[in-house]
Amino acid sequence: MISLTLSASALRQSCSGALRRVRVRVRLPTPASALGSSRRLLAASLQSSSSPISTVSLAYDLHEPPKPVVDKQTSPIIFMHGLFGSKKNNRTISKVLARDLGRHIYAVDLRNHGDSPHDQRHDYLAMAADVADFIRQHGLKEPTLIGHSMGAKTAMVLALQEPNLVANMVAVDNAPVDARLSSEFPRYIQGMKKIDEAGVTRQAEADRILEEYEKNFTIRQFLLGNLHRPDGSATQKFRVPLHILGKALDHLGDFPLKHPSAVLGDFHFKNPSEVRFAKPSLFIRGTQSTYVPDEVIPLIGHFFPMFELVDIDAGHWVISEKPEEFRQAVVRFLEPKE
Question: Are the C-beta atoms of residues 104 and 79 closer than 8 Å to each other?
Fold first, then answer.
């Protein structure tokens, strides 16, 4: 069992949009039997996670800076969306960050999203493997990973599994813990399947159906952004494979490093004693969101010992809700330090 201690001063601090470094203390098991058990489970985990994964070639948009400071293969940024999102969701912020940082930005579609291929397997090990292959295929050197929600956990897994492939990382409103997905996601799948079955020809028809499952207009528009007309048909269908994503929901709240775990409330913490990303990492959380509560901060610090934390007064959709605050946090983290 892992004993977790978060200093009272860390809990009292409020970022108010400014960067701060959080100090954590994590006490890991010391008895030899506990350490032996941990190492055996870790070895089994790594053996399992290294089993062959059939990767897919990711679709992407390349956003070029007006005044590049390096070429497109050197220190680029790879931007990863969340569940039901796509590369187009990050188009505006990618252009802005490319301008501010002078770096090329690859906004990718993760598997089973956007224009990327569909595959029956949809989990973080597979998504991280896809991005690792993307880095190698494009000859990218020292990339920065930025991911929101599902994309954030994909970035964390890749950084922990292949740290030599990544320079640094920005995780937006997610943490390296097991947590239940909210009940809204199965509801979205149900509503989207009903739209597919209805054979709608206009988005307004789809919106009326989806309103039974989601009252928030902005969220409905986000989900309906996945509609398209296949093969020139008048009927609109969802581009994302709803049957695959529906089956994947049960484990998309998981963090896939299979080690002995400690339990705190509804959160299950994996033992990170031998897996760390010892390079700069930025965690951005929405203070109105429940995805990164104070209880998980110690585990972030142990998986990512050089992490910084920024709080932004927003919900889970931090980037779209507070784009300027998000831009400032990322630029401050990535701009060259004197």
Answer: no
Is-contact 253 180, C-beta < 8 A?
Answer: yes
Catalytic residue among 86, 149, 261, 289: 149
User: Quick one: 256 and 241 in the same domain?
Assistant: no
Q: Does 126 share its domain with 206?
A: no
Give yes or no: residues 224 and 206 share one domain: yes
List C-alpha distances in Å: 147 to 82, 107, 199: 7, 10, 33
Q: Is 316 a catalytic residue?
A: yes
Q: Which domain holds residue 212?
A: 184-249
Domains of the chain: total: 2
pLDDT band at residue 184, thresholds of 50, 70 and 90?
A: confident
Query: Which residue is catalytic, options 104, 122, 259, 316?
Result: 316
pTM > 0.90:
no
Task: Assess whether 273 carries a catalytic annotation.
Answer: no
Q: If you average pLDDT over residues 136-161, what whole number do you get? A: 97
